[in-house]
Task: structure prediction
Amino acid sequence: MRAAFAVELLKLRRSRVMLATTLTVLLAPALLASAFASAAGQPGADPVTVKARAMLPGTGWEGYVSALAQVFATAGLVGMGFGVAWCFGREYADRTIVSLYASATPRTAIAAAKLVLLTLWAVSIAVVLGPTAVLIGLATGLGPPDADAVAALSRIVVLAMLTGLLALIVAIFASVGRGYLVAFGGLIGLVVAAQVAVLAGIGAWFPLSSPALWAMADPALGSVSGAQLALVPIASSAVALSTVAWWRRAPLD
Result:
């Protein structure tokens, strides 16, 4: 396991894809949320301003943090899922999967190392996301965040961690589908499923949507309990174990 961990860590450190994905997940949602918050605070009745006002509960930090939660709920899953798809799918796309079968390191150890590193990667993004969002808010003239904004940002950090766990589901798509395409299709399916669950009124019990509903804390969308949030790591762990099991038995061709 230690050898597999070291090799997979080296792959992630040297990957420009993972670097670009990390920067995108960190910066794009906060910048887009800042743009929405700024538009909502502007006078006028142009389509962008009207839409932004309808989306956000207020202006300033309240509007910015609310927009960030809404944007990250989807963009975070897509971005982190892309990273997971690359990490597992590249072995098939680059034909390096053949060498893994000939390696002395068990394939299960390689899959487990990937999952552990991707989890640590997601946690690192979540930890940095809070300060990044604050710096972007300060840079756009919002001033120091108040207690309510800090509490809301803390929820977004937890949202990012849970989203990282949910993104691990993409690993089974990349493994069974032997590449990127099935993984990307599965990722789109996850995003659509989360939206459908919310529209159907079962979002609080659906792991793909409950973290976002909890982070947004919108009474109109309903509350999410700790038991409902606990379904996220349970579902993620189940899929992770399934992925490792697949790597143990998967055929080469």
Notes: Residues 60-93 form the longest helix (34 residues). Residues 2-249 form one domain.
